[in-house]
């Protein structure tokens, strides 16, 4: 029995250590390796683009997004808003804001993927060179569309912009930790992969595609993480996405508790669902086909959200410590200790360069309380009912 317990704890600690290693390598690469300069803007841009904005009941916040997009368009470019199953005046507001509007009504097929497929079909009548997807609540950095387009056209691959989310300046510490975790996931880790000349995942907004590629892609889906699924499908086909950090799209976390809860649940349940169902198959497929890009993306997505990852490492450490004290053996404790220390080192490294403006040094260890506050979310995924379909996030400011 003692041997069996020791073996089980060793396997768990070793498995967690693999993913800690992936996380640490990505963070270290983003911190220490040189980064390629942004693409040089050409004036005028040579490629004709179409910006596709899927919108479900977004009338209250879509105009600033449309204004940002329109300011970066050139003659011949298109701006298409897909008003998808809306019960408000999104279509009228978007048309007033200067966008071309396509209205989709199909309550039996709900989800962003269906809206994207509808939009691509609409654009096919007069196709662009590059199609860019921007969410209806995003703001764009200067030259964002140019940087995405130039990178996409030159690489002939899908391109992902830097997708940031921000909290209000007066946000409590747990909100700022959530923003820091977002930065690690969407900025630091893709930046590390780029420095290693490796692909990244698609994130749903700020995505650019060569037209010949996107028109052949199957987008119609109600998946919680339709963007990640699309990126993985493209990696399987040998056309993995690449990261363009000089193009920045940003939005704000939901202001209402219900909106924040829905958004967090959709993201993290979707991520955990991919880990438990898709990653094993993709890893096997990548090894069998010797597809390095797919293998890298499978390893990357297998790294759990930071809070549950910290919890798993801590539990593994405590279990190994207790086992060592009763004479089971010290190997599991050595592995779990090394994994936990490497995780903490990686997080501190990311914070030192990318999170000091969010979290003061004395507050960095509040990540532990942040984890405990999210335990109900993971309990619901494991023992109750996980979110299995797309749900719109409430972005209203009424609490």
Give a description of the structure:
The structure is a single chain. By secondary structure, this protein is an alpha/beta fold. The protein has an 8-stranded mixed sheet, sandwiched between helices. Helix 3 links the parallel strand 2 and strand 3. Helix 1 packs across helix 6, helix 1 packs parallel to helix 13 and helix 10 packs antiparallel against helix 11. The longest helix has 31 residues. The radius of gyration is 22 Å and the shape is elongated. The termini are far apart.
- Separate helix tally: 15
Oligomer: single chain
Q: Taking Cα atoms only, what radius of gyration do you get, to the nearest Å?
A: 22 Å
Basic shape: elongated
User: Based on DSSP secondary structure assignment, what is the total number of beta strands?
Assistant: 8
Q: What share of the residues lie within helices?
A: 40-55%
Helix/strand-derived category reads alpha/beta
List SSEs in N-to-C order.
HEHEHEHEEHEHEHHEHHHHHHH
| Major sheet | 8 strands, mixed
Binned strand content: 5-15%
Widest beta sheet: strand line-up: 3-2-1-4-7-6-8-5
End-to-end separation: 54 Å
State the low-pLDDT regions, or none.
386-390
Overall pLDDT? 86
